[in-house]
């Protein structure tokens, strides 16, 4: 119900969502999926870890796949504005009772690890090894031609508190879904740092879990081609293609070999104006989830990737309508 | 089970499916739908009848909307090669116990009316008033930019007999769906005259009824735009967008204000080779209906437009799997 | 000036243009171009010959590349309706003073070779080895996703006579470009057998030479992707992308390593109606060549592939406007 | 030659390029062009002025058309972060010898007018009347579906000085074209505030003049449709469609009835990272202007819109290669 106000002067400067670290049980199979089906580019790999990126990304990686005993969403990575921001971040987390550590991650500069109060495992960095972008390497295009990682979407058990926490870090609300009436509770929030609809979306549900991470693609035909490619390989789509009311996105959701969910999407809008106002959706408005009317499958509402070592909790409240986008 | 052989020398020459005549209860509402939503072009209209066509069609109309008390599929129209073919057609139908009449239809030359032995009401003509095509009138493009009527798809109660009947008229099988095993029955057939996948498709079910008629559009993005336009107008989609295994079509199904179903589709293939072989699909292969896996709604399997004065019969057999594409 | 009437009952039945045989000086380089850049599929190859096809083609090949000392357009291939048509073709050519021979070509049935009176080297066949189409093998899509060979376009020194000759074989005029005024001469003709704008186009110029052969692709974005892929490989485009007035085609022209010209195109229209009337263009109407106004380069008007052993002659007349599409 | 360093803490906060004010001699004709051809939406108009916007813009207008005796680029509009930024801006300009005034503009809050030292007439504002965006009003889409104003591109007579001036205001260099060798001079610069390739581009040439302003569209097919629509209306395209090496943009340039140039474009990339490095192009690399190789017409290099009352000067230097993108 209380919509967070935008904090124009946050304690440290998060530039944008940057990369996801995934634990996968069969590294070869996962690399095959992200490389040859989705169309990301392998930048480095060894027996235990693979690093991939989209075609416009100068950064070394936006997906890290790590061989593991159990599938999990290991870390959500954010880029900050400078090394000083890392130190400010550490101090701020410490002041707020969150343990932090600085770690060495391959191809990244100094990296700050924290687990937020709700169980989301994060990493922050200011610099990463750079590579020339691949935009003019059209001969290497494949899959759905993913250009850049765009955002994360998580299930949170304590939705309002989680939204408030990230609002204090400067994440700005662009759209939200809410129960109707006095005391109607917020059931989902889309928040950004970089100037489009979101870097981080928070959805009420059993959490902490990663619902999905999303890559931006050039247009709907790239997504349709991915549908055809996956069908040709005998792989199922989970949801879509379709159009969200939320964010106006043309979307497709697919699952990787471990069940991690990836969204391919395009056609949202800009939000960098200082007086940009958040858009409210009633939880009872079905156009929020799908402008076209096709229902999402049960799996899409219920399944997500846990974070290692983080117990999944029931949500504080169950909304009067099932939500998620 | 018995797949009809192609008759290279049929009793008269049907060139292609040409137009559909629909009975509608609210003419204004129907014209608004086909003109401003779908994007056909109104060529003529008065208080009782409207004539529309696609952008590449030189013929005066490919949809005729007639104000009526009851919604119905009034006629399926086919173009024949010459006036002589009309006379040959009349003779042939008479020989086979089918009554025929020649009637005057506005904007059409001499027109032959028959109701086939299964209750499908047909009309044949050799010439129709011509109009310059609208391909280079891009400023008039709207909706999904429908270019041409492509085919009809009907529910037939006597599937095998209906297929055999149209095979004798020269319709050629391109794809079909069949029960597995010895004695497996054909449950759906796609048959053409003009050199692509179909002019006429026959599906097992309560019949005679029109399942849908289809317009060919330039590409998938035109269909996606129609989804968005319909959603913007508060109109529901029935099925799709998606990809059929059958015919490789990228498809969308929507219903007009009377519930008549229209398919918008593209990306099938050519079939004019004399040695083109029909493609068999097992009824148990789900890729037939949808390459991507999204199920069709119940309405799509069950509902269709009756023909005026034709009693709808239960099918001769119920296939061991529900079918239709 | 005299526009040929359509011959509905030609001496033998040509179904459509089918394949081109090209002499190339560096087979590996040519295969690389057609396979990895254009996106055709190699069906067979050895040290001297490679066979490729488009994704919807059931036929074994639509391009044959033959290692040779000199680049040339070796043969234009057409499919006929039956073995009997081959014999009728042989007889007809003999009656009209054209030598013929039956030859064995790999993967083809009995094949008739003739050189027409104007020097165009042709081959006719009724059957070719078949392969399953690749439409539902989207994981193999590459380049511009060419689906099928669509047509040939040649420079003819004796334009009117060449048009008349092919009209007698049943090729039907769909569009033509003509000088204005009484006695205005036809400078280019688009003629079909299969029911779209053309199988064979004849352009006034130094001939006999092949101007280009064309593949149909799913849509404009496939062509735009090919532009980007070729640029990424450092390869130049010759003309386009653009829109022809003629045939409404969205087009791109590129040259293979031997300079053979290939057109990638989409979005023409159907022409199988018996009363379809040819569309006349004044040679002075620039929209004929390009609806958008960008001029074609000099090479496009002047260069073409000679046929082996056929002397290239100056055209009988020079039109009052340079033509070609 | 000296590449400006990014000023992270500029004297006032410019959020992005926002709108252009154009003087036009025939208001009806201009509105017709931007509304029915390009596809912008008229938000308000009277006898002397019309206000239009793109489909995703919440702001009241991004193009203002004013009836005038002479065609001109009246003002380039930028949005700042707050009212306080307007005051800071006034002070800063005054300190640097630039006169300023606050004016009332319809539908805008307090508006600051300045003419920069090079003759570019600017206006800054913090708030503008808001309207609901039109993204989910697909039934209103027309033309090329322009979504938002993206950037301005100007001819500057004093290129290096102009670049340095805007760098001090916080515009950040993303790409630039430079003569080769020691002392090679910068001939064009692309600079941003909002996080993509540019808000403001500066090109060496007779200045001050506006080269073009650009709208972002959803994808290449929208641009191709505009080509077809303009051709259908008998309107010429100036340049494109094509692909710039610079910014990776798929582009089209057209001229409005007064000759003002508008670019329709898509497919650039994000640049908000604090360590994003500018990309250098040699002036001798033709891929900068066009990845595909088609030359730009002379008009595109030479013509631009003057600013009222600002004398157009010859450039300080003439680059050793003609430039502009």
Regarding CATH, which class of the largest domain in chain A?
Alpha Beta
SSE string of chain A, helix = H, strand = E?
EHEEEEHEEEEHEEEEHEEEEHE
Ends apart, CA distance between termini of chain A: 19 Å
Briefly note the CATH topology name of the largest domain in chain A. Answer: 2,3-Dihydroxybiphenyl 1,2-Dioxygenase, domain 1
Quaternary form: homotetramer
Give the total of beta strands of chain A. Answer: 18
Low-confidence stretches of chain A: none
The CATH superfamily label of the largest domain in chain A reads 2,3-Dihydroxybiphenyl 1,2-Dioxygenase, domain 1
Q: What is the CATH-assigned architecture of the largest domain in chain A?
A: Roll
Largest interface: A-D, 34 and 34 residues
Strand content of chain A: 25-35%
Mean pLDDT of chain A: 95
What's the Cα radius of gyration of chain A?
19 Å
The number of domains of chain A is 2
Structural class of chain A: alpha+beta
Dominant shape of chain A: globular
Give helix % range of chain A: 10-25%
The profile of the biggest β sheet of chain A is: 10 strands, mixed
Please work out how many helical segments of chain A DSSP would assign. 5
Short description:
Helix content of chain A is 16%, strand content 33%.
List keywords for this structure.
homotetramer, 325 residues, alpha+beta, 2,3-Dihydroxybiphenyl 1,2-Dioxygenase, domain 1, 2 domains, ten-stranded mixed sheet, eight-stranded mixed sheet, 5 helices
Explain the overall architecture.
Four copies of one chain form a homotetramer. With 325 residues, chain A is an alpha+beta fold. Chain A folds into two domains: 14-132, 2,3-Dihydroxybiphenyl 1,2-Dioxygenase, domain 1 (Roll), CATH 3.10.180; 145-306, 2,3-Dihydroxybiphenyl 1,2-Dioxygenase, domain 1. In chain A, 16% of the residues lie in helices and 33% in strands. Chain A has five helices and 18 strands. In chain A, strands 9, 10, 11, 12, 13, 14, 15, 16, 17 and 18 form a ten-stranded mixed beta sheet that branches. The first copy, chain A, has an eight-stranded mixed beta sheet with strand order 2-3-4-1-5-8-7-6, with helices on one face. The two termini of chain A are 19 Å apart. The model of chain A has no long low-confidence stretch (mean pLDDT 95). The interface between A and D is medium-sized, with 34 and 34 residues. Chains A, B, C, D: This is 3,4-dihydroxyphenylacetate 2,3-dioxygenase.
């Amino acid at each position: 119900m209380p919509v967070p106000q935008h904090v124009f002067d946050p304690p440290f400067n998060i530039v944008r969502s940057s990369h996801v670290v995934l634990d996968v049980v069969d590294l070869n199979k996962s690399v095959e999926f992200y490389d040859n089906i989705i169309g990301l580019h392998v930048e480095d790999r060894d027996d235990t870890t693979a690093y991939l990126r989209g075609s416009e990304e100068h950064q070394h990686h936006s997906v890290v796949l790590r061989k593991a005993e159990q599938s999990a969403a290991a870390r959500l990575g954010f880029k900050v504005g400078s090394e000083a921001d890392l130190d400010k971040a550490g101090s701020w987390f410490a002041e707020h009772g969150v343990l932090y550590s600085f770690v060495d991650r391959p191809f990244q500069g100094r990296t700050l690890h924290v687990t937020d109060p709700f169980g989301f495992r994060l990493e922050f960095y200011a610099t990463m090894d750079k590579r020339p972008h691949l935009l003019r390497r059209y001969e290497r295009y494949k899959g759905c031609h993913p250009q850049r990682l765009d955002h994360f979407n998580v299930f949170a058990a304590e939705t309002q508190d989680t939204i408030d926490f990230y609002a204090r870090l400067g994440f700005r609300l662009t759209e939200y879904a809410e129960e109707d009436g006095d005391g109607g509770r917020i059931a989902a929030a889309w928040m950004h740092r970089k100037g489009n609809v979101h870097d981080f979306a928070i959805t009420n549900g059993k959490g902490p879990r990663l619902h999905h991470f999303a890559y931006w693609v050039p247009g709907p035909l790239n997504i349709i081609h991915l549908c055809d490619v996956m069908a040709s390989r005998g792989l199922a789509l989970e949801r879509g293609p379709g159009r969200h009311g939320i964010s106006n996105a043309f979307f497709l959701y697919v699952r990787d070999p471990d069940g991690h969910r990836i969204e391919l999407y395009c056609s949202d809008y800009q939000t960098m104006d200082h007086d940009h106002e958040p858009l409210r959706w009633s939880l009872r408005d079905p156009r929020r989830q799908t402008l076209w009317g096709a229902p999402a499958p049960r799996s899409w509402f219920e399944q997500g990737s846990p974070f290692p070592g983080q117990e999944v909790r029931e949500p504080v409240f169950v909304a009067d309508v099932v939500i998620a986008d």
